[in-house]
Amino acid sequence: xxxxxxxxxxxxxxxxxxxxxxxxxxxxxxxxxxxxxxxxxxxxxxxxxxxxxxxxxxxxxxxxxxxxxxxxxxxxxxxxxxxxxxxxxxxxxxxxxxxxxxxxxxxxxxxxxxxxxxxxxxxxxxxxxxxxxxxxxxxxxxxxxxxxxxxxxxxxxxxx
Amino acid sequence: xxxxxxxxxxxxxxxxxxxxxxxxxxxxxxxxxxxxxxxxxxxxxxxxxxxxxxxxxxxxxxxxxxxxxxxxxxxxxxxxxxxxxxxxxxxxxxxxxxxxxxxxxxxxxxxxxxxxxxxxxxxxxxxxxxxxxxxxxxxxxxxxxxxxxxxxxxxxxxxxxxxxxxxxxxxxxxxxxxxxxxxxxxxxxxxxxxxxxxxxxxxxxxxxxxxxxxxxxxxxxxxxxxxxxxxxxxxxxxxxxxxxxxxxxxxxxxxxxxxxxxxxxxxxxxxxxxxxxxxxxxxx
Lengths: 160, 284
Description:
The structure holds two protein chains of two kinds. Chain A is mainly α. Chain A is built from six helices and two strands, in the order αββααααα. In chain A, a hairpin with a 2-residue loop joins strand 1 and strand 2. The radius of gyration of chain A is 17 Å and the shape is globular. By secondary structure, chain B is an all-alpha fold. Chain B folds into two domains: 93 residues; 185 residues, Cytochrome c oxidase, subunit III, four-helix bundle (Four Helix Bundle (Hemerythrin (Met), subunit A)), CATH 1.20.120.80. Classes of the chains: A mainly alpha, B mainly alpha.
């Protein structure tokens, strides 16, 4: 990561940390959606500074909640998921996002019962629904940004 | 002040020297200014009518220090204009390393800041570990609404300066100036919120002062150190903005803008830790 990417790194850190700590989770039907998870798909545009930024953001947010030492492992799990989104960006960002949702949901399904005593089925269901809603909202925003704002590469003509 | 020695061969890069009295003067001004501030607040009790004399001596010292600093800024800004005009006649590969490697400079600054804040947070955790309950019983619950606004202000300023630099790199100077000015105003809003609203609210309404308990002491120490760094960032942005409006930056020459923004982003990240620890983590 170059020094000039430091700004991108900090902005992603801030969006995750402040979005989680400073803004209340919003409800979509019965499920809590973490605003900090929404920028996940933008890793495909901003690259590794976004991966490190979102990971540090989650670390800071977890310090704020400080419910259990187990929670502090969450940034490492998210980091793995974000790496998948990053490396899958050339093939399919959507596929990367779905793998991210799967990884983080499995972790939350294990962690929430251990930390809060939530029943495993409830934890798994709410984690999957919450993560899915947040990441897919972000993915739709990512699609709009990519299609409307970023310069498109011109495909070489296949007609002869 | 920048002297270019003639190169003995045409294909060799010329050497550059910088002779300046200003580093010494600025160091002296800092010493005088801090001593003056001490006299202003404490007085000179060992002189006849000590308090009054101490006040005026302190005031004189602070004024002298400020005058020297203004002189330095004026001189430096003026010299940059001529230095940049000389740069225009230099080969392109000389620009990045002239007059100093600003990337290396900012990396050293950030490293020293990391040590400072690392020590400060270490102190906080060391104190906190000694208490069974944190914050200690009797500490008022903090209202984080102003802190949330401060966080929003810092995020907005970070996004805006990145946008401004992006515009600068594309050669859109007017957009760059607007972005830089906006960042400066947002940056200045942070200490206004802290000193004008948050601290008075805590001290007067919540009765949380540095002497209330160890939480109060660490809270004001950490947010105070951070606030001082924000002030330095705002001063750096004011200086950057003045130079921007003097036309001293271009898509090829904007190292100071990048350095200021890196410092600002670092200050921002420290605030996120403070926000998480002081306003959120302590009261859940």
